[in-house]
Amino acid sequence: MRQNQKQTSNDKDFQTARYWAVVGFAGNFGLAILKGWAGIVSNSSAMVADAVHSASDIFASVFVYISLKIAQKPADKEHPYGHGRAEVISTLVVVGMLAAAGVEIIRTAITTIRHGSLHAPGDLAVYVAILSVLVNELMYQFTYRAGVKTNSPSTIANAMDNRSDAFSSIAALIGIVGAKLKYPVLDPIAGIVVALFIFKMSYDIAMDAVGQIMDESVGEKKIQEVTTLALTVNGVRNVHGIRVRQSGAAFLVDLDIVVDPKITVQMAHDIGESVREMIRVQMDKVSDVRVHIDPSDLH
Known about the structure:
- This protein is 71% helix and 9% strand.
- By secondary structure, the protein is mainly alpha-helical.
- The protein has a 3-stranded mixed sheet with strand order 1-2-3, covered by helices on one side.
- Helix 1 (2-42) packs parallel to helix 5 and helix 5 runs antiparallel to helix 6 (186-213).
């Protein structure tokens, strides 16, 4: 019964994550068109750069949605640990697209400065920049909460992408206002600042993804949780060799338990199975548990 409830909860988590990927797609699609139009009409390179950022976010949301559909598939013969790493691949694709957008923004800004085609943007760019900050911050808040709740790295990456878009819109707004105050060079400079925000966010997201690829430990809190649950099982004398790694939204657990060396193999096996079920059912987001049985504390 508890296992069925957990499966239902996991399905709802994926549904929630996919919902916010769709919201991100729709929001960024609208912002990209609005900011691109405003940037051209208002003659603002900073706003056009911000529009490029939003356009890259559209494709990021698509990749996130696809990765979530793949990650939800159960383990099979070719993928015995499940398909959770699809989210990591999606995250790295998002990083690559963000970095490419940042390079293009810098190239455009430098070209504008070198050729001297600097003009004060129109008022429309100011209003659209303010709207972009508000919309992206709202999308960040809701998407990030959904990502944390579902433990979805690609959803969190998508949320951080929205936050970087909000920051870049603030930079664009500063550049636009500065240009209107008779310092037009601030507009393309703001575009470069936008790109720097994008690079910083890309780096942070990439490091999280690389941590998963390298099977980085998830931290002491999860280790302690595994220890506590294992020791509640009757017949477990001690626990050691605990390793917890993340694969997409799920955690994979390996541990050694110490049992009485005088009990039968069947009894030891049953204790191990009890530990496995205890951790898999009681811990949130755990998809697989491997238990090794030791007959004593001596190694």
